[in-house]
Amino acid sequence: MKTLTVVILGLGLCLLASSAYGQQFDAAFGVSTISSSSSTITNGLLFPSDRGGAYPGFSADLLLRHRIGFEGELSWRASQNLYGGSQPYRPVFYSFNAIWAPKLSKNFTAELLAGIGGEDLRFYGFTNCSNFFGCTTYTSSNHFMGDFGGGIRAYIWHNVFVRPEVRLYLINNNVEFSSNTVVRYGGSLGYSFGGR
Question: Could you name the CATH architecture of 2-194?
Fold first, then answer.
């Protein structure tokens, strides 16, 4: 919940800043899936693959000078999966990136981005309480990650665009799964505010 609050506050600040001349603010909602290497067994322990499932998500960017700016995104698995066949869990990915969005033509814009973020693995069936956040029904395992990716915006009607996209997540110390590398790919529907 606190990650979502930070993302919403960041998007709000970007929206306020986008009203300045010569800047562009873009917001999108999309659905994607993830892929990673196959499951492995090491010393008799099963390390499952971090793959599959539908991942809805939000992204927003603020383009400043020379179509360079900042971008943030949040995506999560829509339904819980079973870790090791029995433990319900849900991955949440978030990142903050530098973005370059050069125009390719009147109706097409490329996106290239890189940054940092995290993977929040939420394992359900546990009750955790704190004085500040209250109680949750999950426990989290958080991992720092690097993020690289891109996409192509195709403007289909005025400032409305569709965007096929791909992200490469390099997850630090992702010991719960068979690989530290996850690829997320999918598509988004978005809107550009300001001069595109």
Answer: Beta Barrel (2.40)
